[in-house]
Amino acid sequence: MCTLEKRGNIYILTLTGDDDHRLNPTLLDSISGAVHRVRSETTTPSALITTAHGKYFSNGYDLAWSQSDPDRHILMSTKLRLLVRDLISLPMPTIAAVSGHAAAGGFILAQAHDYVLMRKDRGFLYMSEMDIKLVVPDWFVKLLKNKIGSPAAIRDVLLRADKVTAEVAVAKGIIHSAHDSAEETVKAAVRLAEELVMRKWDGHVYGCNRKVVFADVLAAMNFDETVEDVAGANILSSRI
After folding, report:
1. Which residues pair with 14 in a beta bridge?
2. What count of Cα atoms within 13 Å lies in the side-chain half-sphere of residue 134?
3. Is residue 45 within 8 Å of residue 11, measured between CB atoms?
4. How far is CA 177 from CA 67, 117, 165, in A?
5. For 176-187, how does the pLDDT look when each residue is reduced to its tens digit (9 = 90+)?
6. Which residue of 43, 155, 176, 215 has the fewest CB atoms within a 10 Å radius of its CB?
């Protein structure tokens, strides 16, 4: 689950508990509900920070939950796509304060924010699909290509499944900055949020411009070929 705290014009959304924050429908609905609340309450220039308690920022999809029924994987994909779409259209700057490991869908959730800050004393970013024999959705790839400028860094993340620490991630242009601890990461995120709020940008314009920047990601999110493959295989097996 998650909590939402408001400090002036800054919202801090925190994934709570000491587990690995697997992205199942319950957690995704909780995050989406908090984002909707932020959207509904905002009347002045604001910013959103997303962070987490415990060892993990998020360890990605709850694959153990979805193994028994392909429809569950489809549901998870649909809910994550809706959440990322909401973040892209949110009328304010967004910051992920990555307080621990962020893997696969958890990495994607972080990268769906405008800025990614990360602790350097513990944790890594990791697209695990090569290691666990899963095909990466096209919209994942398009989002990462929009956020990571170096083709070599994209290769290392997607095709080598590198576990990238904060300092390496800064050097490769994957994240905005690295900090000494989880607490320092959140403090840095608050300072950045305060700077962005001081710009007094029009939230509607900000959200619209972000949607233009990520137009190819938004288009790709209309379809997730990996879950279509799962559904197709399920239909085929039912006919045999």
Report:
1. 3, 51
2. 19
3. no
4. 36, 5, 11
5. 999 999 999 999
6. 43
